[in-house]
Amino acid sequence: MSERLEKLAARLTERFKAAGGKVDSAFGELTLTVPAAALSDTATALRDHLGFEMLIDLCGVDYQEYGVAEWSTDESSNQGFSRGVEKATFGRFTFDEAPSRKAHEGPRFAVVYHLLSISANQRLRMKVFCDDEEFPVVSTVTDVWTSADWYEREAFDLFGIMFEGHPDLRRILTDYGFVGHPFRKDFPLVGHVEMRYDPEQARVVYQPVTIEPRVLVPKVIRHDHRYVHESAQEKSADA
Q: Is the pTM higher than 0.70?
C-alpha cells in the first residue's frame, strides 16, 4: 500500500472507528465498511471533512451464493460444463428449488458506494450491510450526494434494497408490474412472467413463464492443443 493510502487509511480509522467503521486494503484500494446506523453521518463527514465531494457510482450486492462456483471443471462432459452438471446456485433450473448451501456467513445484502475526491485525487469504496435480510433497507444519501438519486433507484429495482428518505424511490429499468428483482441470486434466469401480443385483445398481455428452464451453456469442443490429452500425445509420439 502506498504512503498516501496509508495516511488516508489512518485518517479513516481514527475518524470512524468509534462508530464501528473498519478499513480494509486490497489491490491498492481502500474499503471503508460502516454500520447501517452510521451511514448518514459517515457520508456527511466524508464529503465535508475528508474531501470526497463526488459519488461516482452506487450498487447493490447479494451475497447469498458468494463463493459458490458452478464452473468447477476444466473439461467438458457429456452434459455440458459444470454449470449443467451441478446445480450449485438457485433459480437456474427451477423456480422453487432452494440453494444447497450458503457459503457466505453474515448479512446477505450490501450497498457499495464509490467515492472520488477531486481535490486530493483519491478514491474510496464505502460498504454498508443491510441489517434485515427479509426487508433490506439503508438510509438514502441523496441529501449528501445528489447523484445518488438514480443509482439508489437502480439498486432498489434490481436488488429490492430500500433507501429510507429517498424522494422518489421507484423502478427505473424494469417494466411496470415487473415481478421480483432480477439481480437477486434467487431470481430465475428465465424470469417469472413473460409478455406476448394478444390479437384478440389487441394489446400486450403478461402471463406466467411457459418455457422450460434448461441448461444455458452448450457443450463446445474445439480440436486444438487445449483438448489434447497426454495419452493421445504419447500415442502420437509412439507412432
A: yes
